[in-house]
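Shift notes (night). Ran FAD-dependent oxidoreductase while the centrifuge was going.
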Amino acid sequence: MNAAGKNVIVVGAGWAGLGATYHLAKQGYNVTLLEAGAQPGGLVAGWKTPGGRSVEAGIHGFWYPYNNIFSLVDELEIQPFTPYTRSSQYSPAGLEVESPLFQMMPYLPSPWGTFAYTQFKRLPLADRMSALPLLYAVIDFDNSDDAWKRYDGMSARQLFRQYGVTERLYKESFEPMLLVGLFAPGEQCSAAAALGMLYYFILAHQPDFDVRWCRGTVGEMIFRPWVDRIEAAGGKVLAHKRVSDIQTENNRVTGVVCSGVDGDEQFDADAVIFSVGITGMKKIVAGSEALRDRTEFRDLQNLGGVDVLATRLWFDRKIDVPLPSNACFGFHPTTGWTFFDLNELHDEYKNEPGSVIEVDYYHANQLLPLSDTQIVELTQKDLAGCIPAFGDANVVDQAVVRISQGVSHFAPGSYRYLLPGTTSFDNVFMGGDWIVTRHGSWSQEKAYVTGLEAANRVVDLLDMGTTAEITPIVPDEPHIQAARAANNTVRQLLNQVVPQLWSY
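Came back to this:
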């Protein structure tokens, strides 16, 4: 049967939406991708300043375990990434941590390589050793539905306190990781999400924390050639299409409605994939009676996002930045931030006469009301708190991007409201970094994987084409597998004997 006669509508042109669209277009489906913005990419879509300089809404890293994204760029025959880079961490007291390239170090069983090779400058060994009891929670959290339900009700701060992590280790290590990994302070992060994120990026295998970066904006370097390939395969990518409603019949969605200044426009659908962020999905639900009528979509109002502030500064001189990627803590209560030397990372700025620095603030709600001038002054002051030479330089150009509720917030208790990849509609599927998946990945890789999973569900539903191959995460190391098997055995026994003591 010819898939070209089947209409699939994908809503949202981020990693998930582009991934689903690309695979379905290759299978011959009549697939249309609707993007509310001016161009594909969502938060990672790049654009130009009036002076022709590239800007994007924050810098996004590509970590060692992003095997599906790395396979994608190979298929697209593009080379968008820098080599793997070392990173560091600063506080107002100065340099706190330097990380090596873990893949280049002698391999140690997880998590001992991370523990042994991370170069803490001030944090005493006794504080670092206080994290050892936390390894039980790492073993106990296996990304299963039961594990999420056990740990999601408590905050990450409660988790670390419960397992005896010292206040100094929490403030100088774990909370900074949460602020730039889950984008919120520990008391506002789900313990389950914290364990999942920390394990995937840092603890599962020694090289997992190694990261590389796009050599320009992700929109220019990856998404634009990707869209070209989608269109060459027959897919349609339409910008400025803001979805406002759906049409339904017999528990199926038959059409997607976009509202604009010229009236409504309907796109017929045999299957629909929603691949927008939490904030965007809540807006769509609010305007659609058919979606509001279903508890699973109505309950999305219990979820939220985190504010992001992205600044890019051009200086009148070159400043020596020891490492190209840096995370910072302790400068603003409940706010974490990162800064990047774009002269080292982006091809466009390698020959700039002065430093080009990207500074991204997360959980930046208290900073968004500031004027651009105030934000630039604050950003330069913060940079000087890490590298004093920034205080003597002059800013010759700037870009300030405010993203209200821009990234997913995994708050304590939020798991019950996150949507799975399937919905109560027979032909509606979900993708995105906030969608429940058992794959185990996080961030951009997770979004892309859920897009492929959604495409595969369409293929199964409409019984046309082949499913996409999804590379699973690298299996746990043998000692972790053995520890988890033993833990599950003990848990099952205790559930039989004293279930009331083992419930959460």
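The two ends are 50 Å apart (CA to CA). Residues 87-210+474-501 form one domain.
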